[in-house]
Amino acid sequence: SSAFRGEAATNRPAWRRTRRPVTDQRLARPRDVSARMADDIRANVKSLAEHSNGVTRTPGTASKTGASRKLVIKNFKGEKTCGRRHRITAAHCYIMHALIIGDRPKLADNYTEDTWLKLRDAVGAIQNSTSIKYNLEELYQAVENLCSYKVSPMLYKQLRQVCEEHVQAQIHQFREYPSSLDSLSFLKRMNRCWQDHCRQTIMIRSIFLFLDRTYVLQNSLLPSIWDTGLELFRTHIVSDSAVQSRTVDGILEQIERERNGETIDRSLLRSLLGMLADLQVYKDSFEQRFLVETNRLYAAEGQRLMQDRDVPEYLHHVSRRLDEENDRVISYLDQSTQKPLISTVEKQLLGEHMAAILQKGLSNLLDENRVTELTLLYQLFSKVKGGLPVLLQHWREYIKSFGGEIVGTPEKDKDMVQDLLDFKDKMDNVAQRCFNRNETFINAMKEAFESFINKRPNKPAELIAKYVDSKLRAGNKEATEEELERILDKIMIIFRFIHGKDVFEAFYKKDLAKRLLVGKSASVDAEKSMLSKLKHECGAAFTSKLEGMFKDMELSKDIMIQFKQYMQNQSDPSNIDLTVNILTMGYWPSYTPMDVHLPSEMVKLQEVFKTFYLGKHSGRKLQWQPTLGHAVLKAEFKEGKKELQVSLFQTLVLLMFNEGEEFTVEEIRSATGIEEGELRRTLQSLACGKARVLNKNPRGKDVEDGDRFVFNGDFKHKLFRIKINQIQMKETVEEQVSTTERVFQDRQYQIDAAVVRIMKMRKTLSHNLLVSELYNQLKFPVKPGDLKKRIESLIDRDYMERDKESPNQYHYVA
């Protein structure tokens, strides 16, 4: 009997589901159950139907409780379908059949009323937290019995009424609560009331569970017992304006205290806010006011702290505030509040002050390379709508401003390139580490560099070429080969930003010529590596002449091997070991021819070489260039013999002192034929530098017309071979000016060629379209006025003509 009741509690008895008797005889005679087994099942079910618990027994059918037998069916696997919906075992079908064909028990006359009184007493005991007189299983069975006899609507209505009366009685403790007492005590009382109500509702539902799972479940318009409890608490307690206002005020007060650094009872707030969420009044009663208060608090805090604190400190404060608010959401606020809450904090602490933060602190953060704060700045601004575009704009302006100072200050030209490289490294580091490798920021940085580096035309290109020269010269011990390669890679990054690459080419070619001809190149591999980088960046046309210079040097080595073999067969060998570099004029920088008076031995040797070379290469013309010639002289001092590595001009001056003791500037000039400016530089290097092989009288740093020079026999030096020809590697003002002028002259030729090329193809073109085409073809910056001058020049030279009716129209002249 107990086994059957347990099943009935979870699966509603079959006789309540079936409205008409089952007539299918197959249920009474399953294939695997005997007729005797069917009789046993009927007898068992009959004894269950006559069991007590308020059900009237029919006379003559009573039997002892203990007389019922428990039916056990082993290894029964068959299943059958009863009706349309329920799949049941064959054994259950027997039970249903037996119950349906039996007599339905009748309720006692006062059973419903008496049972409700018992249930009401139990509910009252639960609500008053006293002991329940009846067994919970008995109460559950009573509810089940009432529901089985169509009493469910009345039972549900009475239960609701009892619960409502109890909840209505609870409101008085809050309305009568003294306003003078602190809000925390009020919140604790409210929480206690809510917790009690939840506990009571759960216990009441456990007794009326059968009602909840049958009658309420079948009526979709009726709330469940739990939902009824929530509805009653919301209607009669929380929806009371005074109670709700005081509750929300108390919660907001506790949150404000926590924001001010005080410790509060988070579990209390979690419970109360969970109550509001369960009662579905969280958004209307609490969240709206909470967000308004949050907005007001952080608006005032943002205004105050922006004035009182510096930017790094302010950023850390904002980050801390955001972490605190996120922690509140995790600890006691509803999850739905997170997005509007964080948005409010970000708007008031960041969104309203973005421009002020960047104007006040971005430059300092970048100047001091504050990586941590810059990372935090980027992370915070990325959360605010429009934050990153504002940061991007200020970042771009900072680069232009700082870089403009580097490029636009002539006093800093000496360190310009190194400063640019350091600045680029610094900005790359910021973009990579702080700005999360954001492509937009990296592109903005490139645009800013390109903008400021071309604000001062030509000079950055010239200085970059000289910087490369300083790194590729012999004697540069600052870097290993790997470090030198990295430096060249960085230089190429800066080189890409330059518009006037022809200026770089001119100065690079001039310096490369000196390194190759004077033998001052640190490494041929490094030279060719740089050449490869330039070729990759600018194309083969850009480096064709530079590559030709290297070819000339290789060919010269082969020619000199042949010349030495040729000299060995001469009957009158020379004491001078002559080395000649044969340079193709189109590849190398142009040098001003200078006729100097060479010693007869050198002149004779030149003629021998000329005969040798022209004998092998007929139709060629040799033009001697003494400017970059150099020699090694053997000299005898009181200390002993030394070797002096000197330029050709220094050689001619020193050889004079084999013929005399003292010479004036004028005497040296007439004897050597060296140009005056070059002569003064040469004498200064011999008499006023570190290695003074000549003495100047009177002493001084500059060479004047009346100065006299004497060989310094007392000269001392720790080295045997002494280099005095560094003067050849130094650039003179005249060289710089001539190189720049040569670039401008080449540009004019390129403009003329481009104009003629375009007009020859188009035949007729307007001025504006011609200028537009020129800008597309020319690879260097040019002003509209310069283009107009070249067009006028071509018109004067009859390459093109103006249209007679429209002066802005040009025609090509074939």
How are the SSEs ordered, and which strands pair?
Blueprint: H1 2-10, H2 14-17, H3 35-49, E1 79-82, E2 86-89, H4 90-101, H5 111-127, H6 136-148, H7 152-175, H8 183-207, H9 209-213, H10 215-218, H11 225-238, H12 241-259, H13 266-278, H14 282-308, H15 311-331, H16 338-349, H17 354-367, H18 371-383, H19 387-408, H20 416-434, H21 439-453, H22 459-472, H23 481-496, H24 501-518, H25 524-538, H26 540-568, H27 600-616, E3 630-637, E4 640-647, H28 648-656, E5 662-664, H29 665-672, H30 676-687, E6 694-697, E7 708-711, E8 721-723, H31 733-762, E9 764-766, H32 767-777, H33 784-796, E10 800-802, E11 809-812
Parallel strand pairs: 4-8
Antiparallel strand pairs: 1-2, 3-4, 5-7, 6-7, 9-11, 10-11
Helix pairs in contact: 3-4, 5-6, 5-7, 7-11, 8-11, 8-12, 8-13, 12-14, 13-14, 14-16, 15-16, 15-18, 17-18, 17-19, 19-20, 19-21, 22-23, 22-24, 23-25, 24-26, 24-31, 25-26, 31-32, 31-33
